[in-house]
Amino acid sequence: MSEARRLAATLLHDVGKYVARTARNLRDGQMIDGLFASMLLRDVYETYRGARASARFEELARPLAAIAPDARLDDVRTRLRAIDAREADARAGDAAALSAIARDARAIEETLRAIARERTS
User: Fold this and answer.
1) Helices 71-85 and 53-67 sit at what angle, rounded to 10 degrees?
2) Is the pLDDT of residue 113 over 90?
3) Is this prediction's pTM over 0.90?
4) Whether 47 contacts 20, CB under 8 Å
5) How far is the C-alpha of 79 from the C-alpha of 119, rounded, in Å?
6) Which of 45, 62, 112, 115 is the right S-S partner for 12, CB 3.0 to 4.6 Å?
7) pLDDT given at position 121
8) What stretch of H or E contains 67?
9) What Å distances lie between residue 1 and 6, 7, 82, 120, CA to CA?
């Protein structure tokens, strides 16, 4: 397995799969509160060994971009930064922040899945 393929697969697993674990079960516009809100926040802010998804993303995306540049990694980075910026509002139960996090999480998984799929083709 090539290093780019391994990194893309790990990125999909360690970031994409986990940030979207709860989000993929939520509909756009659905009220996110209680247990769903708690699960969603854990998915994005305590993803990999208790660390933020954005931190794990950087660990894997930098070496991947060095050997296989892909502009979509910048889109994922931007979405993860937006998720991090919404943390205080989301933890306070702000419906718009929680909904935006769920949308971004689904888009992140979709993008990382596409990148990983292309590396295996």
Assistant:
1) 170
2) yes
3) yes
4) no
5) 22
6) 112
7) 64
8) helix 53-67
9) 7, 10, 33, 9
